[in-house]
Design a protein that fits this description.
Blueprint: E1 6-13, E2 26-27, H1 33-41, E3 44-45, E4 52-53, E5 56-59, H2 67-71, E6 76-84, E7 90-97, H3 105-114, E8 117-119, E9 121-123, E10 126-140
Length: about 140
Amino acid sequence: MSRTRSICTAAVLVSVMGAAVGATAVAVPLGSPVGDVAAAAQDVVDGKDAGVTLPTVRSSVKPHYTPEAKDAKIQGTVLMTAVVRIDGTPGDIKVTRSLDAEHGLDRQAVVALEQWRFEPGQKDGKRVAVRVTVEMTFTLK
């Protein structure tokens, strides 16, 4: 009897998302509303602005594959936007391209991203909050 192995990869596409072309934004509730308030309280800069240094990933956590999603053999990518705050934590996380809300992969991607830490973006030598796009891919092997 063979066991199915799962591999989750994540890549940060640091860019600014306006409206996602052909996608509907789905807000996924976070564990604490305080994080969203903190992100909203900071001025969020556009990564395309002159003089803005984009955030870089310091540490990342891979999302868990739910047993239900494994059984359903769901594979693909969850696309999210987040604001990397001046302390390097992500906030205001939104799923912009869903893979699987029914079996929990979208939620697992958000839970993983909440644990990531970044080197914050900078503008004119000062830390600033920057909106980034994060892509997490779920693959079964």
